[in-house]
Design goal:
Structural class: alpha/beta
Oligomer: single chain
Number of domains: 2
Number of strands: 9
Number of helices: 11
Radius of gyration: 21 Å
Helix content: 40-55%
Distance between the termini: 59 Å
Strand order of the largest sheet: 5-4-3-6-7-9-8
Order of helices and strands: HHHHHEEHEHEHEEHHEHEE
Largest sheet: 7 strands, mixed
CATH class of the largest domain: Alpha Beta
CATH topology of the largest domain: Rossmann fold
Strand content: 15-25%
Shape: globular
CATH superfamily of the largest domain: Vaccinia Virus protein VP39
CATH architecture of the largest domain: 3-Layer(aba) Sandwich
Length: 286
């Protein structure tokens, strides 16, 4: 085994600790955590496996390993993660963006580009923006678009604004503190949201990585998990431009219920998409 004071020694210590604790993906988490803290790519870890690590840096890694053993997600420990080729800062007030949400961005983009071709530009509203992941990804891909991100949390909005600055789209991104449409004016070509959709009674059964570290407000969808969809459906018509689009992330078993909610408000489902696990994950309405 490599010496504990080397790069690979720390990786191996992390891997063994995570494996003994029963954490999933122990080897991948070990490489990601150690590499992220030491500023090394996976290739650099392999190439420099026997390189010595300064005492202060080694202690920083050891402390981070202890945090992961308490189920704190790796990306929260690192303070940032990649989403749709953006580097996004995280905060306690923001949901950690997951790869499955990239499916929603993928499905929106062709519609957004078509609107831009037709109108010369487009206005996007991201309800419950959190880190800004969805809105900022759309802005990065479409320089002619502008986006407003809303959230009930001022800390989340500050994080989203920081991410807009870091990713070079702050001149086309604005934030408003609002519960859904309460403080929103104007109309938008695309209204998008990854709202809280987990049933309140299910939250206590979630993995501790999610339950104890993602903000409750970003998880709790009410007694049946559908509260946010009702609020969005009720307010969307007043704020959606002619021929506009509503795009939503949903829970794996919510396609029929969310479609029914929007149908009662005069919307029709135009597209549905599944995530990488084959679960229903994104719905688009007009």
């Amino acid at each position: 085994m490599d010496r504990p004071g080397t790069v690979m020694g720390l990786v191996e210590h992390a891997r063994q600790s995570f494996g003994q604790a029963g954490l999933a993906n122990a080897a991948a988490d070990a490489r990601l955590l150690v590499g992220g803290l030491l500023g090394l790519s996976q290739g650099q870890i392999v190439a420099g496996h026997d390189a010595a690590v300064a005492g202060e840096d080694a202690q920083r890694v050891i402390a981070a390993i202890e945090r992961r053993l308490r189920h704190e997600p790796v990306h929260r420990i690192l303070g940032h993660r990649t989403f749709y080729d953006l580097d996004l800062r995280l905060s306690p007030a923001t949901l950690e963006p997951r790869p499955d949400t990239e499916i929603l961005v993928d499905r929106i983009l062709p519609h957004l580009k078509a609107i831009i071709v037709s109108k010369g530009g487009a206005q996007v509203l991201d309800l419950g923006t959190g880190t800004g992941a969805i809105a900022l990804s759309l802005l990065k891909e479409c320089p002619e678009a502008r986006a407003m991100g809303t959230d009930i949390s001022t800390e989340a909005l500050a994080t989203a604004q920081q991410n807009a600055d870091l990713n070079g789209v702050s001149d086309r991104f604005s934030t408003v503190q609002s519960r859904w449409f309460d403080d929103i004016d104007g109309r938008f070509d695309i209204i998008v949201s990854n709202p809280p959709y987990i049933r309140a009674d299910v939250i206590k059964t979630l993995a501790p990585d999610v339950r104890d570290f993602d903000p409750l407000a970003a998880l709790d969808g009410g007694p049946d998990g559908l509260d946010a969809y009702r609020a969005i459906a009720a307010g969307t018509k007043t704020h959606l431009a002619a021929d506009g689009l509503v795009a939503l992330e949903i829970g794996f078993d919510q396609k029929a219920d969310v479609s029914d909610i929007f149908r009662t408000h005069g919307f029709s489902l135009v597209e549905a998409a599944r995530d990488y696990g084959g679960n229903d994950r994104a719905l688009l309405f007009r």
